Amino acid sequence: MADRVLDDLELPAVRERFWTTVLSDERYRANRVAVAERDGELIGIAMAGPPQAFELQWDTHLYVLYVVAAEHGTGAGAALLDAVVDPHDSVALWVADPNPRAQAFYRKHGFVADGTVAVYDGVREIRMVRLL
Q1: Burial environment of residue 46 by CB neighbours within 10 A (0 to 12, 13 to 18, 19 or more)
Q2: What pLDDT band is residue 53 in, cutting at 50, 70 and 90?
Q3: CA-based, 20 to 30 A from 29: which of 22, 23, 51, 114?
Q4: E strand segments, the chain
Q5: Environment class of 21 (CB within 10 Å of its CB; exposed 0-12, middle 13-18, buried 19+)
């Protein structure tokens, strides 16, 4: 996310509304959401679901996969990925570029950059896919 978005004091309320909607609105019933906890504290979250209409060549789109930095390398990210993505599905995702840690994580799990690049809200992203 762009710094101005992260610095916005309204961000927590906006994200709370987003997640409330995603978890309770019928429009998102096909999505799969998982959280990771350690000692009662939320350390990560993932969400995958049907792709947008313009990306129908994949079975699933990984929309969210975040793990707090202190938990990188613990297996929490892999567990979240496995919880929301069927291993037999073809999958697409967008990842910030540069973001070498995240890109290496996805490569480790069978994803490759397909050469598609987009700039969203000032952030350059690359699309990575895992095909069957």
Answers
A1: buried
A2: confident
A3: 114
A4: 32-38, 41-49, 60-67, 91-96, 112-120, 123-130
A5: exposed
Q: What is the dihedral of CA 64, 65, 70, 76, to 10 degrees?
A: 140
Residue 56 has pLDDT above 80, yes or no: no
DSSP structure class, residue 8: -
Q: How far is CA 106 from CA 19, 36, 64, 110, 129, in A?
A: 24, 18, 13, 6, 9
Dig out the tokens for 75 from the structure.
């297996």
Q: What predicted TM-score, i.e. pTM, was given to this entire model? A: 0.88
State how far Cα 60 lies from the chain centre.
11
